[in-house]
Design a protein that fits this description.
about 210 residues, alpha/beta, six-stranded mixed beta sheet, Ribosomal Protein L4, Chain: A, 6 helices
Amino acid sequence: MKISIKNTAGQPQGELEVKFALIENGKGTQAVHDAVTAYRAAQRSGTACTKTVGEVAGTNKKPWRQKGTGRARAGSFRSPLWVGGGVVFGPRPRDFSKKVSKKTRSLALRKALSERLQAGDVVVLDDLKLASPKTKEFVKVINALELKGTTLVVCNGDDQNLALASRNVENVVVTTGDSLNTYDVLRSDKLVFTKSAFEKIEARLTKE
């Protein structure tokens, strides 16, 4: 499959041959599900915590004697039935992360990219260098490419000007070829790659 290369003004600059094999059938659907589930689970902090009866402040002294007061028997100020008492079966710190094999992650990314390429949602630029970290320069590029909705920009490495210019633009996320994952590919309406970043992704997907 070939995709056209554009410059920042939206003008054609040739074509690029996709080197990795596209997935056209139902293969990889489960891998995509597993990769996205694992990614979203890893975003959970898992820090919710409540105190048990043994952890709340209080004394072991019996509030009042067992019989003769006319009140219900009680053995502790820290009872879960009391205000300020411990919590029964409350949340505790936990790790929500799930393990996904390297082959599964690679298959999921290849499946997701294949679908976006076939749908025409991928734009490849010959380069994306901004002269200054001004938002209006970045917005000018977005308008020239006629990008609508959410956009993911994938560059080859950390670009300070690009990061500063894009951070204030709504519905635009900038990442690198090394950090790209299946969830990022699926969540945006359009994917914008620099030529070098796309080649880096191809190298990741064609590596034995």
